[in-house]
Every structure is written in structure tokens, then in C-alpha cells.
Amino acid sequence: MSQQKWEYQSLRLDPGGFLGGKVNQQELDDSMNRMGERGWELVAAFDTNQGQGATRHIILLFKRSRYGG
């Protein structure tokens, strides 16, 4: 039995607004749905801060099965 292999991809979204923090919900949903249609599964999401707690980026991490060993 062969061991399952995975490939990973990250996607960075840049929120707008003064000092960041204004998330475009439609853009977020569309991005995740596009990745899902291509076989990617969301496994983690986190934000990066630029100071004073403001969100600079949203990072989405996806994985999918890798074929061909």
C-alpha cells in the first residue's frame, strides 16, 4: 500500500480599509470556491498583523492529493 502524498498551496488576500482589516467577504468566498473546484481543500487560515492589531494579509492554506507518487 502506497503512502498518501499531498501538495500544498497558499493564497494571500489583502484586506482594504484604513490600516487593513476590511475583508471583502465576496472575494474571500469566491477565492475559496475556485480553489475547491480545482480539488483543493482549505486546511488553515490566519492573518498577519501590521501593528496595533490591524490585519495586513489573510493567508489561506490548501492541500490536495498528489497523483503519480
Model description:
This protein is α+β, with helices and mostly antiparallel strands and 69 residues long. It has one domain (6-65). The protein has 1 helix and 3 strands; from the N terminus they run βαββ. A 3-stranded antiparallel beta sheet has the order 1-3-2, with helices on one face. The radius of gyration is 15 Å and the shape is elongated. The chain starts with 5 loop residues before the first strand and ends with a strand. The mean pLDDT is 86.
Distance between the termini: 12 Å
| Estimated structural class | alpha+beta
- Main sheet properties: 3 strands, antiparallel
Counting structural domains, the number is 1
Order of strands across the main sheet: 1-3-2
What's the helical proportion of residues? 10-25%
* Rg over alpha carbons: 15 Å
Instruction: Let me know the number of strands.
Output: 3
Counting H and I runs of at least 4 residues, what is the number of helices?
Answer: 1
pLDDT averaged residue by residue: 86
Uncertain segments: none
Global shape: elongated
What fraction of residues sit in β-strands? 35-45%
Reading the helices and strands in chain order gives: EHEE
Summarize the structure.
The chain has 69 residues and is of the alpha+beta class. It has one helix at residues 25-37, and strands at residues 6-13, 41-49, 55-65.
